[in-house]
Specification:
single chain; 114 residues; alpha+beta; seven-stranded antiparallel sheet; 7 strands
């Protein structure tokens, strides 16, 4: 669940749910936001690619969320592509309370192919 948003840096604070710790989140993973609205098939879903992860309060950049526990706070920086102004505008659409879902994990896809 999104706990805070900083649109200027395309970042948000994410509280990890119990199921989220089973498959670690990593840079390069695709995510989207569930904003609790009815979406049709052609809806413009807000999402992006994880650019950087940090554990709240710990400072350093993380390679993944592996080892974190349910309820831990994770700072996530997104890459929406495009220019900075567009990224900031897209982050303004993210709201506290939005659910975050993973829709792509390149590393996991590679493991499955092997």
């Amino acid at each position: 669940t999104v706990c805070a948003v900083q649109s200027a840096t395309a970042s948000f604070a994410l509280k990890l749910a119990p199921g989220a710790v089973n498959v670690p989140l990593r840079p390069g993973a695709g995510i989207f936001f569930d904003q609790h609205v009815g979406l049709g098939e052609d809806a413009d879903v807000l999402g992006g690619k994880v650019a950087k992860l940090r554990k709240s309060g710990a400072g350093g950049v993380l390679a993944s969320s592996a080892g974190l526990q349910s309820g831990d706070m994770l700072l996530v920086r997104l890459d929406f592509g495009g220019r900075q102004k567009e990224r900031s505008r897209r982050m303004e659409e993210v709201k506290v309370g939005d659910l975050v879902w993973r829709n792509k994990d390149e590393m996991l896809e590679e493991q499955v192919k092997e």
